[in-house]
Amino acid sequence: MNAITKPAEGTARGYGHSYRMPMPRLRLTPDVSHGPLDGAWWPRCDALELELPALVGSLDPSSGTVTHVTVGTAAWPDAPQEVIAPGHVIEVVLTDSADEAHAITVDCGTVGRWELLVIPPDEPTGVATRLLTAAADPGNPLSAPRLLALAESDLDGQDAWESEGGAGPR
C-alpha cells in the first residue's frame, strides 16, 4: 500500500472551516514481507500523538484494531503512554533497544503486526524517498537502524547502499 500525501481539504460546505490531517507518508511491503521490515513511515514531526492517528487510520482495517505500538525513546523522547485514535485508545510502549531506535511496531493483537522503519521528519526528501522504497522492498534484508545508517553515510552515492540490499536495479 502506498499512501500519497495530499493537502488538507479546506472548507466543508455548511460547516465553516474544517481540517483533515494529510495522509501519512507511508509505504508498506506488498503482500507478505520476508525481511525484518514491513515498510517505512516518514512522519512530519516528532509528536507521536499528532502523527499516530493518521498512520493507524491508513492501515488495512481487516488487520484489526491497533492495540499498541512500540517505539524507541531516541526517536520519540516525549511520547505519551497513550494516544487517542478514532474510536479507541492506543497504548504506547517505550523501549531503549537499539534495534527499535528508528522503528515502530504497530500491533493489532493476534490479527496483525507491522514493523516499520521510522524516517526522521527532517530527513531530506531524496533520502526519505529512497528509504521508503528500500524498506518496502520484499527482498530487503536490512533492519531499520542499518537502512538509516546506510542512507545517512552515503547520501550521494549508491554503491554501499545497493551492495547491502538497498533499493537498486533488480
TrEMBL record:
InterPro entries: DUF5994. This is DUF5994 family protein. It comes from Streptomyces heilongjiangensis.
